[in-house]
Amino acid sequence: MNIDSVLQPLQHFGVNLGLSRIVKLLANLGNPHERISVIHVAGTNGKGSVCAYLSSVLTTAGYRTGRYISPHLIDWTERICINEEPISAEELSQLLQKVQAAVSPDDEYPTQFEIITAAAWLYFAQQQVDIAVIEVGLGGRLDATNVCSEPLVTVITSISREHWQQLGPTVADIAREKAGIIKPGCPVVMGSLPADAEKVVRSRAKELQCPIFTPQPALQISPGWAEYQTLQHPQNSIQYPLPLQGQIQLTNSALALATLEILQQQGWQIPKSAIINGMVNTKWPGRMQWLTWHNHKLLIDGAHNPAAAQVLRNYVDSLNPQNVTWVIGMLSTKDHAEIFQALLRTKDKLYLVPVPDSNSANPVELANLANNICPGLSLCQTNNDLTSALESAFTDTDNLVVLCGSLYLIGHFLGTLNHS
Length: 420
Hints:
By secondary structure, the chain is an alpha/beta fold. It folds into two domains: 3-280, 3-Layer(aba) Sandwich (UDP-N-acetylmuramoyl-L-alanine:D-glutamate ligase), CATH 3.40.1190.10; 289-419, Alpha-Beta Complex (Protein-Tyrosine Phosphatase, Chain A). Helix content is 38%, strand content 17%. The radius of gyration is 21 Å and the shape is globular. The two termini are 25 Å apart.
C-alpha cells in the first residue's frame, strides 16, 4: 500500500483545528497517547531544531526516544522516528490502515494531519518508547498533538506573526494559541518572545501554577562551540559542540539544554557525556545547510516566514559575501513582502521559481514585488523550474548562492539530489 494513496486524498480536508476528532479517534485506538512520557514543543521558529537536539541527546543517553515532527522534507516516514531512525514505509502503511479502520462511520472524518498524528501516538505506544519529543503542527491549543494531559516539559521556542489566518491577527492572539499546550503544574521553558506574547504565556503559566524557565542564549566560545549557564546555578556551565549553523542556534540549543536540565531534576539520567555527544551528532536537514550541487557550494534553508528570513540574512551577513544570489520559491499564503525585506539587498541577484506540487506563489508577481521592495537588485528573473534557476545562478561563480523560501521547495530539491 502506498502511503501517499492513503494521505493524499485527505488533503482536501485542509487545516481544520479542533480536538474532537483526534480525541475520538485515539479513544477508538485505546488512548495510546496516555502511555507515553512527552516533551511538547511549540513555537513559530526553532521548534524543529530544539526537537532534533532533544531527540539526539536522549537517544545518546540510552533512552528509547520517539520524535514526531512536521512537515517532512522528502518522505512521510521522516515525521515519525525512534532513536533517530525513521519508521519503515511498511510499518507506517500498516499503522495508517489501523488508524483509518478506527474511524467510526458516524463521526466527522479526521484531517490528514490527525490521521498521521494518531499513527505516531500508536507507534510510540506499541514500541514502548521511554520518552517522545512531540512537535506541534500548527498553533497549539487546537493542534492534534495537544492531547497529552501531563507533559514532562512544555517548550515555547519563539512567537512571530505566522499562520495568522488560522491563529488570529496579532502576536498576542498567536501566543494565546501556542500557550494552549501549557498544562496544570507542568514546567514551561520559554524562549525570548515579543513583550505582548510573553505576557500572555506568563499569565497562562501562572494561572495553571506552572514553573516557567527562560534560559539565556548560550555564549559562543569558539567556532562550533557554545557554553550554557545552568538554570539552578548560573555559575555552573556546560560547554558543548554546536553543529547547526547560525546565531539562532545559541538560543535554540539553550532551550534544549534547559529542558534536559528539568528532566534531570525529575530523575532522568542524562550525563554530561550524553549531552556533548548528542549535541555533536544532531542533524536537522534543510535548515542553514551547506551542500555541493554540481561541484558548486550551495546554502539551503527553509526561511519560510519573516523571522526565519531575518535569521538567514544574519547568518549570510556573518559570512561577509560580496553579493548574494538568491533562488527563491514561496507558498502563496506566506508574507512575501516581509520575507523580501529581510533578505534582499542592493546588488543582490534574484531567481524566482514555482514551488512544485504545492500552493505556490506566482513567480512573476513575486518578481514585481521584489523589484518594488529592492529596486537596486542587479538581476531579477523568473524560471519555470528549480534546475534551470540554479544553473543560471551558478554562472556568476563569485556570488554566494542561497536556495530558500519554502520547506516544500527545499524538500523537492533534496528529493532530486537523492534521485540524481
